[in-house]
Amino acid sequence: MSQERYNPQDIEQKWQRRWADEHAFDCDHNSDKPKYYLLEMFPYPSGNIHMGHVRNYSIGDVMARCKRMQGFNVLHPMGWDAFGLPAENAAIKHRTHPAKWTYANIDNMRAQLRRLGYSYDWRREVATSRPEYYRWEQLFFLRLLEKGLAYRKKAPQNWCPSCHTVLANEQVIDGLCWRCDSRVEQKDLTQWFLRITAYGDELLRDLSKLEGGWPDRVIAMQRNWIGKSTGAAIRFALEKPAATAEGEEAAFIEVFTTRPDTVFGVSFVTLAPEHPLVESLIAGYDKADEVRAFVTRIRNMDRLERQSDTLEKEGIFTGAYVVHPFTGERVPIWLGNFVLADYGTGAVMGVPAHDQRDFDFARKYGLPVRVVIQPRGERLDPDAMTEAYTGEGVMTHSGQFDGVPNVDGKAAVAAELERQGKGRATTQFRLRDWNISRQRYWGAPIPVVYCEQCGMVPEKEENLPVLLPLDAQVRDDGKSPLPELDAFARCVCPKCGGPARRETDTLDTFVESSWYPARYTSARKDDAPFDMEALNYWMPVDQYVGGVEHAILHLLYSRFFTKALRDLGFYPPHLDEPFTRLLTQGMVLKDGGKMSKSKGNIVAPADMIEKYGADTVRLFCLFAAPPERDFDWSDSGIEGSYRFLQRVWRLFEESRDRLSPLKACGATADDAAAGEARALRRKEHLTVKKVSEDMQPERSQFNTAISAVMELVNAMYLAREKMGRSEAENRVFSSAMASVLTLLAPFTPHLCDELWERMGHDGLLLNEAWPAWDEAALAQDTVTIALQVNGKLRGTIEAPAGADKAALEELARADANVLRHTDGLTVRKVIVVPGKLVNIVAN
Ligand code: ANZ
Ligand code: ZN
């Protein structure tokens, strides 16, 4: 019999054509099957698919194909996060247009993804830079604006000098730009914001719905980022009223505290140097200039440094005082470098005895320390204290609250302040509104104009989309060409028809990625953003797969957008969360480090595919480690995966005279009554069980699933030598082969479809039912029984699997070792645990 060698190149092209011709991966929401929406984070079209993409999309593809075989109607789409800065930078460098660069990359990467054999419904492909896509985003923006969820304000913003644009807080990582690692500066700018803070409570509350489905650490990161604190706002009346920047009179300074129970311990109030009342408070103070110098110095300090725990506390007295709300005592007002302008009220009540920062501050500047919380059974002495006491205790030196446990005192103090009109219980979020303005060209235009007569005017909905002009030339200095492009920037006011200027900032590209999963459900719809029926059917995404670097950014924005679009009526009212389950895959490293151009350690998927074929590359990415863990790319590893596929191929080719077109688990118990056939069928069913369990989304242990199939293949090589060639035995062998192909199909679909066809089957494995194991087939013929005498192990025997207590006792008593150890003794008792052990008690 002639045997062919495994030649992945031919096979893979053949099956990719077949899948495309047969529209094998198309799906539709009109179906009786249960739906399953499997989504991987869509790529930025940077030029080439890299190994991280291959891992990400291979994980997704295995899950999608497996779910489909398990009877689900699976939506598995792909598209392009196509707006963004790298396109502009590349356009400057290569003297081309961002659109040209982007769409050429998309064509290239699409071909690379097709070459990997992923089961995408390509009819649903979206590119966010197309007007057919971003026009709907502009509509969302107008509706958000109408509802007050989009607004404009002037405030200090994160500015990346190298990207020439602002960044959202989420895009500043450790003080650096998330994209280019430049140090981020602060700049006062008027920008557009989305009011994500309006959803702070819901974003926090609904994290509990994600428990079990999302990694705990991602939930924890989101919880911290939202950062809810419960406490009180307390008003300290100013001794002398001050003037605000707007010329109004301020009669008090409001602080935010999480510890209203410590209010009697206040010995100073500290303001952020940026606090709007500073200039007015120091008016007439003889050291006003010193204070101003301090303000300037701290303003220029790094923001991150100011938030760090190790910051050296610095401050300066303003010469002004407030009055304590309970005691009426004069309290000096200081400025402090550790007080942030944009958190709480930008003002803090200083309680040195119970707050470490205040303690450091007070010791440095000789301010009084007053103990107002006494720990039980102890007496704190303010002069002897070396650090703040932040634990629980009883309120002392606290007027009417003396003796109240401090945990109860928090609410009690807040209530009393509220009664007196001097404060109230309140909460604070760390979360800030999302700055969505970008001073860049390659993005979706923000659909508003500025009219000389009418001011800011939203574009009319019927005028959408506001097209990004494609005839603009990128500038060498990286600044946006839009403000200078009269054809775009000069326009007429939608309200009065008079001359107006278009907004030339574009939308943060994270806006596009906040709603693309929904668009896939009806990607070609051109009279509305979504087909409600399709949206209702498919959303939410059942399983999302992507990198953990998006734990806050993209995932938080997507959650917010889901809630906002729901409230605007674009999403169904019950759709609260976009992603039911989230898998964050680890990185593909090389020699322990990240693959990068500068290190020259990039392994290009295209090279690997050329050498080994797509199936091997897919298999290795899934076999190398559990999906959440990082793994190191290794030549020996990919060689090993390739050898395994060759081994499957050879086993198949060398056994063809045994094979008939049986399905997985297709041999009956009668076919495998005894001996090798019975053992092989047992191994087959055990493997089906193990792989099925490993493939459950809750487990997703693809590496051990593959190991199990490898073991089955080994067992088949051995069985082949020992097993006879009766028709029944051949059926057992065929069934095992069918199981290997069916279980491997999600991982290495080309090879499996090819061998499936060679086995004599019609149709694709994708449309086969996932095999079901037979519990009875798992039963063992014999089990090993431990034999003990007086609790000591004296040997083992093989006993029939179903043997009862009496039978086991009889076998044990007849055992030579047992007889030797009970020689001369009287058996008092025999303990039998069927299937495990027999213990003979004798003396
Ligand atoms: C008095 C006090 C006494 C405080 C005490 C703590 C302990 P979180 O948990 O982060 O919300 N604070 C308030 N606004 C601030 C600002 N803009 N910059 C820096 N610090 C600020 O922290 C809230 C606590 O941080 C507040 O409670 C306040 O100090 C301080 F024994 O008020 B506390
Ligand atoms: Zn106008």
Task: Walk me through the structure.
- There is one protein chain.
- 36% of the residues lie in helices and 20% in strands.
- The chain is α+β, with helices and mostly antiparallel strands and 843 residues long.
- Among the domains are: 137-224 and 435-509, 3-Layer(aba) Sandwich (Rossmann fold), CATH 3.40.50; 228-429, Isoleucyl-tRNA Synthetase, domain 2 (Alpha-Beta Complex); 656-778, Isoleucyl-tRNA Synthetase, Domain 1 (Orthogonal Bundle), CATH 1.10.730; 782-842, Ubiquitin-like (UB roll) (Roll).
- Strands 8, 9, 10, 11, 12, 13 and 16 form a 7-stranded mixed β-sheet that branches.
- Helix 1 packs across helix 25 (749-758), helix 19 crosses helix 20 and helix 22 packs antiparallel against helix 23.
- The model has no long low-confidence stretch (mean pLDDT 95).
The distinct bound ligands, ions and cofactors come out as: ligand ANZ, zinc ion
Determine the number of helices (DSSP H or I, runs of at least 4 residues): 28
- Going by CATH, the homologous superfamily of the domain at 228-429 would be Valyl/Leucyl/Isoleucyl-tRNA synthetase, editing domain
The main sheet comes to: 7 strands, mixed
The CATH topology of the domain at 228-429? Isoleucyl-tRNA Synthetase, domain 2
Q: Report how far apart the termini are.
A: 68 Å
CA radius of gyration is 35 Å
The outline comes out as globular
Instruction: Tell me the name of the CATH class of the domain at 228-429.
Output: Alpha Beta
Structural class designation: alpha+beta
Beta-strand residue fraction: 15-25%
**Average pLDDT figure:** 95
Give the second-level CATH assignment, the architecture of the domain at 228-429. Answer: Alpha-Beta Complex
The proportion of residues forming helix, as a percent range, comes to 25-40%
Annotation, overall tally of beta strands: 32
Low-confidence stretches: none
